[in-house]
Structures are given as C-alpha cells and as structure tokens.
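Pair request: fold both.
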Amino acid sequence: MKKSSKNRATLFVVTCALLIVGGAAVFAKTGAARMFISRPEIKVALAGSVHRGQADLPLEKAEAVGSGEVVSWNIVSNNVGNAAAHDYQTVGQIPKGTSFVEGSAKAEGTATVTYSIDAGKTFTAKPMIAEKQPDGTMKQVPAPVSMYTQVRYEWTDPLAAGGKLTASYQVRVK
C-alpha cells in the first residue's frame, strides 16, 4: 500500500473513531440531562363511598347503590415528580343517573370550583340557561344542579413536588 493511501486510511479510521466517540459523548450527555429534567408528575386517585347507617361504605364493597342514596367522591392528587405543577386542575365527573348535591364541592388550598352543564366544553361558577318567560321573552337563570355534568377544581398555588391536594363532592342517585 502506498504511503498516501495508508495515511488516508488512517485518517479515515481516526475520523470515524472520533465521530463515534463524540456521538456517544453527546448521547450520554443528552441522555443524562433527560434524567435530571425537572417536571411534575401527578398521580390521581378517585374513591367513592356511600353513607349507610352510621358508616361510609366504600363503593367497591357496596353491592348496589339505590335511588336517593348519596355517593361521596374524593379526588386525591399527588405530585410524585421533581417540580411544582403550576395552574393545576382536576375534573370530577357527575355520572349519568345521578345529580350533583348543591354545596358539596370542597377542596383544600386555594381552589376555585366551577361547573359544566355541557359535558366539559365550558365551566363557570354559576352555569346559566335560557328560560322562556310568561310574556314570551327569554331570560338567563341559574341552571338546576341536576344539569351539572362535571365539577372542576383549579388551584392558584402550585402543587409542590411531593405535595398532595384533595377535593371532594357528592351526587345523589336518581
């Protein structure tokens, strides 16, 4: 092999080795950086219970829930990530065949509670509907709680890493 061909082959091998080592170093650096990215990770648990007699019975132990019984829903949000969750919100569903119990929505911290009557498209503190008046005009009036489809909780304070928030509401079986 000629000297210039040998030099070119050596240069090619060295260049390839540098590219491989450099690429591995970049991959290791970005892979390691991904491990230390700060971000929230929220785990949400929903539990329901029905009040019978003198005790609250978990829904999974209640064989059936009858008409007129009240189901209490509890939503627990745990931030298991390594950064705070800003503008955190969670939504509770009001199942078909039930009606929201007015005044039952509670949340810890600085939560704002809003409701939807259109399957979660819009939320407001006091949903309104148009009602026809005796004179034929339409007037906006508060929607009955029986029309509520969701309840949303929005916290203004961040949910800190390792933090927990709870919210609850009740529904009555129709």
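--- second member of the pair ---
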Amino acid sequence: MAYKSLLTLAAAPDRLGPAVNAAGVLARKFDAHLDALALGVDRTQVGYSYVGSGAVVLQVALERAEEDARKAEAALKAALDGQGADLRWALDSAVTQIGALTDLVATRARYADLVVLPKPYADTAGPEDEAIIEAAMFEGMAPVLVVPEKGPEITGNFKHVVLAWNQSREAMVAAKQALPFLKAAERVTITVIDPPTHGPERSDPGGLLCQFLVRHGVKAEVAVLARTLPRISDVLARQCTDTNADLLVMGAYGHSRFREAILGGATRNMLEAAELPVFMAH
C-alpha cells in the first residue's frame, strides 16, 4: 500500500499553514499527487425571518462564503507555489452551506489515500472544522492526518510512532491504513491500556498485532499500561510525551446523530489535547 493521492482542505486562510505544508512534504515523500480544496462555508441556519428579509440574509451569507472561498484559494495557492516545482498539485474551490458540507467533503475524500487537515479545536476554529474531519473519515472512508498548529515540523519521517490498540475494528483499520508510516518508522510502540482479563488476547495483549506488523517489516514492540489517569486520552498523551513519539495512530470512534456520525468522546478528547500529529481511521 502507498499513498498516491493526498487531499487537504482549507476553510480559513489563517489556519491552513501547518497542514498544507505537511501535505506537500508527504506528497513529495510518497511521490503522490496533492489535491487542495478551498471552501467557503455558509454558516447561517435560517429558522425564521420577517417578511422580505429572508432573501437579503441568504444573499449576504452567500457573498460572505464566496469571499471566504476566494481568500482560502489565494492562501492555498501561495502556500503550494512556495513548496517547489517538484510538487504535483491541483487546486479547486467550492461554496457550500454547513448542512451540505458532509456530502461535498466525503465525495472528495473517497478518492484520496490520505487526507491532511488542521486540528479542529483551536481559538480560531469554526464548526466546519470538526465537520470536515468527520465527513472525511466516516462518510469519505479515508484516513486523516490531523496536524496541530503549534507542533513539531513534519519532515515526512516519523521516527517513533505510538499505535493505540484495544482490539477493536477501528484500531485495526487504523493500523493497516497507517502501514506506510509504520514501515518507515525507526520504532513503533503498540500501546495497550488496561486490557480485558477475559478478552481473546488476555495472555498476550497486542501480540498478534505485533506479529502482523513485524511480518510487514515494522520495528514493533508492545507496551501494556495501567489506566492511571481519568481518561484513556490522558494516558495516551502521557505515553507519547514520555517516549518522545512524533506520531500517534488510533482508531476514530463515533456515534450516529440522525444520519451524521460525530466524533466520540475519546477521539474528541485526544484531538483537543494533541500536541503532535494524530493519524486516525474509522
């Protein structure tokens, strides 16, 4: 498996820097093509209006979204132009209402091997940032690399990767989708937190996954940790800090709200606290 089609999206020109730079670096590393999409999002949800005012409100919101898309497109073009002539990329822009954002992002993400996005929880983040990540993973079925605004610069080589493992389908999907990163790493630590005493891997937590990865050439080892902090995300964050990891790989968990899948508590908590890139898949 290799990443040959990468995708990044920008809805705010002042937040795209680290994610777009990381996407360009990874595209060159994997000899991949990078698609970039500038978004203008109409965030209005008009529930009622006075007679004659609805059309004015909608027109103003649409014009604002179109202006946002133009600014994001200009910022994306400047960032991509600055990454060198050896980067293969294409740029597009679109305007959408917040309610239609999922379908737009999912359609693009389905044809990408990896989606690179900024961290959705920040002072300057909007409601569309989390919606974009959810759409890419749950509806677009693509793995997502989330890049924090103030994290280590991504060079394309993650030396130490922490892989969160709980025997779930989501964790297995994430491990397989992250194989290009895992195979290139100098060290991969499969981290198991409070494994069940009566589970199928009770005698050797993480052992079968370690064997699977080693057969792919991954330099993997297993660490079994006790849950000494209130949240699983806190234990994972401390493990990443203590071992000087530069990438966390984990399954993304969510639950259904009508037909929209939203990030579950553990996934949200991890992204909120993340100070290093997080690779997630569902």
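Observation on the second member. Residues 5-147 form a domain with the Rossmann fold fold (CATH 3.40.50.12370).
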